[in-house]
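Forgive a beginner's question, but might I ask you for the amino acids of a protein and the tokens describing how it folds?
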Amino acid sequence: ARKVYGVGGVFNNLPERVLAFLHERGIEYQKTNDILSVAREVDVWYFTRYQQEYKWFGLLLKYLHLLRFLERVWYARWYGVSDELRAVVKPDAIFLHPLPHGLEYPEGIHIEDKRFLHYDPMIINSVITKMALCKLIFRPSP
């Protein structure tokens, strides 16, 4: 990577240890809370799911399911895959996302937009690798 963009809220952005790692390796970085402001620059997008369990107000909202849902919708709107974002990104940009999906990455989007890499091969390869390791561990060679 030549440049890394960290997009997130004021309290949810690249940690200092990540910035130090990038700086040590001479990789330029830019932090922003406006995803559309950098959309035309990015070649590879990597989205993470909204992790309520790590928010400072998580305990307060633990039993307030409606507010938690509304907060996730807000997060998805500002920091997720929106129609506005898809309209302005590079035509050859690719999108990655860890499982499980959250509101920030619409389910099935990889079917309608080929820029969103399909994750099924990754899952299948993972299962096959785990099966082979189990066989090696639990079935000793003669």
About this structure: Residues 83 and 94 are 15 Å apart (CA to CA). The two ends are 47 Å apart (CA to CA).
